[in-house]
């Protein structure tokens, strides 16, 4: 069973990656999780979802498409906003969206903006401050968990390219 939450501001069910990680489901079977979430929106049990539900389903699975991106995906597949799409098309759209978002690149860009001297390192204290105070704030415990993966240098700095590569690797559950 997938870890469910609700899409903020709606009654729509969705897969919650945080709950999934806590429940031990992690990232073991991404396609299976996509299928389960897709089926929650397949109200007629025909193996299809409404194109108008596409953004909600994508966001429930951790993607962050804009309305324009969703429209481009539908246009690419020649699907009208009032039509339906099957799971195969949905998988293709999710693959393209996730490839486009590439969280590793986004994180590296953000960290390189902090690295004014372009040395490729950031201090642990500065990283902790940014992660707990800006954007989607992390708790101290969450930052501690991330920093367990880091190789901290003798001067209290982390090579952020290596750190980002490590934290962006898929988790393997044994």
Automatic annotation (TrEMBL):
Keywords: Cell projection, Repeat. It is found in: Cell projection, Microvillus. SMART domains: EFh. GO terms for molecular function: calcium ion binding. GO terms for cellular component: microvillus; myosin II complex. Residues 29-64, 102-137 form the EF-hand domain. Its main location: other. InterPro entries: CALM/Myosin/TropC-like (IPR050230), EF-hand-dom_pair (IPR011992), EF_hand_dom (IPR002048). CDD domains: EFh (cd00051). Pfam families: EF-hand_6, EF-hand_7. Belongs to the calmodulin family. As part of the intermicrovillar adhesion complex/IMAC plays a role in epithelial brush border differentiation, controlling microvilli organization and length. Acts as a light chain for MYO7B and is required for efficient targeting of the IMAC to the tips of border brush microvilli. Interacts with MYO7B; the interaction mediates the association of CALML4 with the IMAC/intermicrovillar adhesion complex. Interacts with MYO7A. This is Calmodulin-like protein 4. It comes from Buteo japonicus.
